Amino acid sequence: xxxxxxxxxxxxxxxxxxxxxxxxxxxxxxxxxxxxxxxxxxxxxxxxxxxxxxxxxxxxxxxxxxxxxxxxxxxxxxxxxxxxxxxxxxxxxxxxxxxxxxxxxx
Length: 106
Prior knowledge:
Low-confidence stretches: none
Order of helices and strands: HHHH
Helix content: 55-70%
Distance between the termini: 47 Å
Structural class: mainly alpha
Radius of gyration: 18 Å
Number of helices: 4
Largest sheet: none
Strand content: under 5%
């Protein structure tokens, strides 16, 4: 939100659904009943660490493009942008509908 060039309307359109999904996921404690990931989660952890490191390095130097800058030409097409937004919201909905905490029988 601090680095973008979003208009006020676009910022609200992105922030409100995102905040709602985060709040719903936290309230439902989404995914808590799932078994622990264990070693099979290490590739995901490595990928997320690499992506986060990439973004931090790119934001520290204004001459290097961030992932957002690289995707801008693709997302400039309205159909692709709409599909990406719907996909992002569907991913959030899937995450918050995962099983909640297990109820132990009395």
